[in-house]
Design goal:
The chain contains 7 helices and no strands. It is mainly α.
């Protein structure tokens, strides 16, 4: 059986490299995005994945792997925004590269810690799930997040925004482990 913790770390490195390279190219322009905008970006990625899964056709050269990476990275951005807030002034947009990496690492490793706890309790059930089912669960988490956002973050009995973003990260990470490391079709 594969070592999930090690595989997760490999995929963290894969996603982190994309995140850091885009930070070099674009800076931290994403800091102006409000949470609903980040949720919508994640929705766009998940919806494209589902469309490709249903039709078998991708008219843009990129397949589903970069979209799952995008889900991970946008969800990390959302968690960062939950902590430090949206940049309201242009001088607040730029985060120092070290601070950006520190925040990324904080949230991606918190997601890993959560995954390890849940993975223990659920017995790695994700390994037997269809990737298309995991995609549907990510979309469900997005719709839940949109509902919470529409209620200004207030819930009666449900987990908050952060829990949903963490779940999106972990489900996308499961798909990346299977697609990138285990080479599933």
């Amino acid at each position: 059986m594969a070592n999930t913790a090690e595989q997760y770390e490999e995929i963290i490195a894969y996603c982190r490299e994309t995140f850091c390279n885009k930070a070099i190219d674009y800076g931290t322009a994403w800091r102006i995005l409000r949470l609903p905008s980040l949720t919508d970006q994640i929705y766009i990625k998940a919806n494209r994945i589902r469309s490709i899964q249903q039709t078998g056709v991708a008219k843009v050269a990129e397949g589903v792997i970069p979209e799952f990476v995008g889900i991970v990275n946008y969800a990390v951005m959302a968690l960062i925004q939950l902590e430090i807030g949206v940049a309201e002034k242009s001088e607040e947009v730029s985060l120092a590269p070290e601070k950006t990496r520190e925040l990324y690492d904080k949230y991606i490793h918190a997601a890993k810690d959560l995954m390890m706890s849940k993975n223990h309790d659920y017995g790695e059930a994700w390994r037997q799930m269809r990737i298309s089912s995991i995609t549907d669960i990510i979309l469900m988490k997005i719709y839940r997040t949109k509902s919470i956002e529409d209620h200004q973050g207030n819930t009666l009995v449900s987990e908050g925004l952060d829990a949903n973003y963490y779940d999106m990260i972990n489900y996308a990470m499961f798909c990346l482990i299977r697609l990138v490391l285990e080479k599933e079709a």
